[in-house]
């Protein structure tokens, strides 16, 4: 995607991670909103070099996030992040950065603390995260650790009303599909089964996750572009994980301590397929939005995130995993979400610069 056509400067998303001795805006001591699984410092991660890099586009400078300017720009506004746990990760990062200027006060949370809302009284800003991992209507049979008791039922032509019923309240949204589409699921359209992904033994036609992802994104972006409520929309691309020698549930790990350079790693076929669908549907939405006077912007974070295998909690998703000296204990790794502080903070640099240049 040629971002230069959008911001008039250069492509923010082609670049390199370069050393940055200034380090992050915040630590686990100065930020109140880091969830336990992303609090790598508190959980005992011994290395800190992952904190001292910044994203540098090839042909321009990307300014560091300015919390005061952002809050001033967002005065009397409402900003929502809609999606899965990566969205929650992103919101935590933004809360941490903004808290150096003004702390948000939590004014709502659902029972599981997956959807939450904060209010910044000085600037009259409302910041929300809305839990909707598929963005379309889904029946999910999972516990908080990802263990499933039945196959997910996904209605590709019905949006999740958890976010659509609130949509008109938001001035700005950040929205994304994601890794949930790789899960085993049965797909419905017009309340009838039309296929599935990875549902062996069910006597249902295998149509693959690409079918569902494309159908769902088309429905989602149509809703946004056809809405009478003109919401400034950021659409974020898929986030690659960095599990090596296995997946999250069978021994996969991520123990690298530095970024990759360009050419040292390739996007996996699955992520590449998902990103292509996302870019196709975004292009379609962009054409419609220009006709109806709506602003939609791409946050193409796939490539820059791919280069940061060192930024995940790994075994430090839990507190002091090797306490007592047992280094051979089997511990689940998190190689999908991001340590805070960490590389995901750069997503806010990109979001702010896109807002400023808009």
Q: Count the beta strands.
A: 13
- Proportion in helices: 10-25%
Average pLDDT figure? 93
Radius of gyration: 20 Å
Largest sheet: 7 strands, mixed
Poorly predicted residue ranges? 1-7
What's a quick, concise take on this entry?
The chain contains eight helices and 13 strands. It is α/β, with parallel strands linked by helices and 358 residues long. Helix 5 (209-226) packs parallel to helix 6 (269-292).
Describe this structure as you would to a colleague.
The structure is a single chain. This protein is of the alpha/beta class and 358 residues long. It contains eight helices and 13 strands. The protein has helices at 4-7, 67-73, 85-98, 161-164, 209-226, 269-292, 302-306, 345-357, and strands at residues 15-19, 53-57, 78-83, 105-109, 116-120, 125-131, 136-139, 152-159, 172-175, 185-189, 192-197, 232-236, 296-299. The strands form three sheets. A seven-stranded mixed β-sheet has the order 4-5-6-3-9-12-13, with helices on both faces. Strands 7-8-10-11 form a four-stranded mixed β-sheet. Helix 5 (209-226) runs parallel beside helix 6 (269-292). It is globular and about 55 Å long. It starts with a helix and ends with a helix. The model is unreliable at 1-7 (pLDDT under 50).
């Amino acid at each position: 995607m040629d971002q230069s056509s959008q911001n008039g400067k250069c492509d923010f998303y082609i670049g390199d991670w370069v050393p940055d001795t200034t380090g992050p805006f915040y630590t686990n001591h100065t930020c109140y909103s880091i969830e336990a699984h992303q609090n790598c410092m508190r959980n005992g991660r011994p290395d800190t070099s992952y904190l001292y890099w910044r994203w540098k586009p090839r042909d321009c400078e990307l300014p560091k996030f300015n919390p005061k300017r952002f809050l001033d720009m967002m005065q009397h506004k409402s900003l929502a992040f809609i999606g899965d746990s990566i969205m929650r990760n992103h919101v935590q990062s933004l809360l941490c950065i903004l808290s150096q200027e003004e702390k948000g006060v939590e004014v709502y949370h659902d029972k599981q603390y997956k959807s939450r809302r904060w209010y910044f009284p000085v600037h009259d800003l409302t910041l929300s995260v809305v839990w909707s991992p598929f963005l379309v209507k889904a029946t999910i049979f999972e516990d908080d650790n990802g263990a499933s008791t039945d196959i997910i039922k996904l209605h590709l032509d019905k949006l999740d009303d958890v976010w659509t019923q609130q949509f008109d309240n938001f001035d700005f949204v950040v929205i994304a599909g994601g890794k949930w589409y790789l899960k085993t699921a049965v797909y419905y359209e017009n309340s009838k089964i039309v296929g599935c992904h990875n549902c062996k033994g069910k006597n249902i036609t295998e149509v693959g996750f690409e079918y569902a992802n494309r159908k769902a994104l088309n429905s989602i972006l149509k809703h946004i572009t056809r809405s009478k409520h003109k919401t400034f929309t950021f659409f974020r691309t898929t986030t690659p994980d960095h599990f090596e020698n296995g997946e999250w549930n069978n021994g996969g790990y991520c123990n690298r301590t530095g970024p990759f350079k360009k050419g040292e790693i390739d996007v996996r076929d699955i992520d590449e397929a998902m990103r292509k669908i996302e870019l196709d549907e975004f292009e379609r939405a962009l054409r419609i939005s220009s006709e109806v006077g709506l602003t939609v912007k791409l946050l193409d974070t796939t490539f820059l995130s791919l280069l940061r295998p060192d930024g995940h909690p790994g075994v430090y998703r839990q507190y002091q995993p090797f306490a007592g000296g047992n280094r051979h204990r089997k511990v689940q790794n998190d190689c999908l979400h991001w340590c805070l502080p960490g590389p995901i903070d750069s997503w806010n640099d990109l979001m702010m610069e896109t807002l400023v240049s808009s």
